[in-house]
Amino acid sequence: MQPNTPFISPIYFHKTASSFWVIAITLFILIGSGGCSTSSNETNVISGSTPYFNLGAYFTSEIARLTEHKTTLDKKAALNGKIENQTLKEVDWEKELAIFTLSDINKPAWRDKYTADTSMQGQQMTITYTATDTDLRTQSINLVFEPNATTPKSVTIFNHADNLVYQLTENLNYQSATGYQIQTTQKVVLMNPQSFAIEGRFE
């Protein structure tokens, strides 16, 4: 297996007239290289032509929906325990949900790097993708579907990166009806650990 190639992806939270101090966090994201294909019938039906559920296309659709409906965002951000609140009436949803879109695992090199497990709880179906390679940034994705739905009502993602320069953990949760949560812990060499959390509620 070839080593992962790191790059830096900044997620920005801008300062506004309501004096919400914006926090700019740099999230280090590892892009992995790997192997071939997994499939289950249920997974392929939901994913279409991709080996796994198409997370990128799903969030592109969600961005369009939220933009069209002019959804307001009630956002709470916490950096190392300091909490700030803001209500946004004009939202750049592409930037707001970028961290979720970047967790899509449909890369050609990762086609055999995740197992798919499907389970039922009552009428709800849950699909869980779990990485078989600990070097991959996205370690698990959990999708919950209502009966007969082809898109999930909730998406939960666990990302992790650990190398000589930094350690990063991300816990992401998206609820299509209500909002999202992001919890990030980052430790860079020679710097103190940083913890960051965002809760966004759709209004």
Helix/strand layout:
Layout: E1 5-12, E2 24-31, H1 41-47, H2 55-68, E3 73-79, E4 82-88, H3 93-96, H4 98-101, E5 114-121, E6 124-131, E7 138-145, E8 154-162, E9 166-175, E10 179-188, E11 194-202
Describe it for me?
The protein is mainly beta and 203 residues long. It has one domain. Helices cover 14% and strands 45% of the residues. It contains four helices and eleven strands. It has helices spanning 41-47, 55-68, 93-96, 98-101; strands at residues 5-12, 24-31, 73-79, 82-88, 114-121, 124-131, 138-145, 154-162, 166-175, 179-188, 194-202. Strands 4-3-11-10-9-8-7-6-5 form a nine-stranded antiparallel sheet, with no helix packed on it. The N and C termini lie far apart (46 Å). Residues 1-47 have low confidence and may be disordered.
How much helicity do the residues have?
10-25%
- Portion of residues in beta strands equals over 45%
> Distance between termini?
46 Å
Strand order of the largest sheet: 4-3-11-10-9-8-7-6-5
Task: Please compute the radius of gyration using only Cα atoms.
Answer: 17 Å
Structural domain count? 1
Specify the number of helices. Answer: 4
